[in-house]
Amino acid sequence: MRRLLLFLPLAFLAMFANAQSEGFSYIQGKVEGEDSPQEIQLVRAEYGSPVVCATTQVSASGSFGFAIEPLANSAYYYLYDGKSYFRICLQPSITIKVGWTEAGFNFIEPVSKANQVLLRWYSMETPLRSIRRSDPYAAFFQRFDSVEAKSKVFLEELKRIRSPYSMQMADIVRLDLLDRKS
């Protein structure tokens, strides 16, 4: 009987702790490279301006992480390393694993369908991110035209398969391409 009285409060405590953590998203990251950031920010956009939600220091072993309850009206957040933004989709009770190298952020384990779609877009957009200031001016437009053509096919495929992310990705692609062109 005493064991039961001791066990019941512990069981209720465990159930309460589990219920509290169900709404959180977790981001685990690994930083590698010589010129690696010492700090990573989790940012969301509000009326077109970045709003910092959380900041964390990169550990000596190169790892970082966040636990956050995503807003109901905005699942898209960004990781910011001080130089560039990396879009992720946060959903309750999932853990997203990302990596950082000199080339920037990338998914290790995107987990959700939304992040898998974002991963496809990032892989298409890579040629635009790899342009250096020393490259000839015309090189940008050749790469841009190539990425724009691939993005049209990508968006048409999302429409064809009736992806729930079709409209969101159309906006994301449009914004990302406009940002690169201007």
In words, what does this structure look like?
It is a single chain. The chain is globular. The protein has 4 helices and 8 strands. Helices cover 42% and strands 29% of the residues. By secondary structure, it is an alpha+beta fold. The model is unreliable at 1-20 (pLDDT under 50).
SSE arrangement:
Elements: H1 2-21, E1 25-31, E2 39-46, E3 49-57, E4 63-68, E5 76-80, E6 85-89, E7 95-101, E8 104-109, H2 113-129, H3 137-160, H4 166-181
Parallel strand pairs: 1-7
Antiparallel strand pairs: 1-4, 2-3, 2-5, 5-6, 7-8
Summarize the entry for a quick read.
With 182 residues, the chain is an alpha+beta fold. It has four helices and eight strands; from the N terminus they run αββββββββααα. The chain starts with a helix and ends with a helix.
Separate helix tally: 4
What is the CA-CA span between the terminal residues? 73 Å
**pLDDT averaged residue by residue:** 85
Give the biggest sheet: 4 strands, mixed
Percent of residues in helices: 40-55%
* Sequence of strands across the biggest β-sheet: 4-1-7-8
Return residue spans where pLDDT drops below 50 for at least 5 consecutive residues.
Answer: 1-20
Structural class: alpha+beta
